[in-house]
Write a structure and sequence with these properties.
Alpha-Beta Plaits; 4 strands; 52% helix; elongated
């Protein structure tokens, strides 16, 4: 974390992120009330986090399961010479909602949505032209807010700090 990011992510900054994750449509007035700032101060903090790239955008969180009955994670291993075409194929599939280039034996991990098993099979056949897919059907998804990430990070940072304090 850079010094600028650390300054923006004090306790109030983290509370702003948590509040915006819960409801990105909050007015600055309501956001300020929730985190103990005036509306202009809350707006300025949000603007600085946007400028620093901490807040990258605001999106509608779709309930994909309501739109598409099937969600799958597709890992694809592929020879080096097929990587460019595999990536182009994945970019061209509207059913791909996330794509991750990863380390290890797989080249890509994709999150795809489909209307049926036949629809998913068609997606897999297209990807199979460039590599070997391994498919896992998603049974359920748990979303975590940044507060959970922060708590885990705070726990990891607390142990080395406690050790330093004990040596003093």
């Amino acid at each position: 974390m850079t010094l600028q990011t650390e300054r923006l992510l004090d306790d109030t900054g983290w509370r702003i992120l948590e509040a915006l994750q819960a409801d990105a449509r909050l007015s600055f007035s309501e956001l300020g009330r929730q985190v103990g700032l005036s509306a202009p101060a809350a707006g300025e903090r949000v603007r600085r986090m946007e400028d620093a790239g901490i807040i990258a955008g605001y999106r509608v969180d779709l309930a994909l399961e309501k739109l598409f009955p099937m969600t799958a994670l597709v890992r694809i291993s592929a020879p080096e010479e097929n990587c460019t075409r595999l990536a182009a194929c994945a970019r061209g599939l509207k059913e791909v909602v996330e794509a991750h280039r990863v380390t290890g034996s797989d080249r890509l991990v994709l999150k795809v949505v489909a209307q049926s098993v036949d629809h998913l099979d068609g997606i897999i056949r297209q990807l199979s032209q460039f590599g070997t897919p391994t498919v896992s059907i998603v049974l359920s998804t748990r979303r975590q807010a940044v507060s959970h990430v922060r708590e885990r990070g705070d726990q990891r940072l607390a142990a080395p700090q406690a050790a330093r304090d004990a040596r003093r």
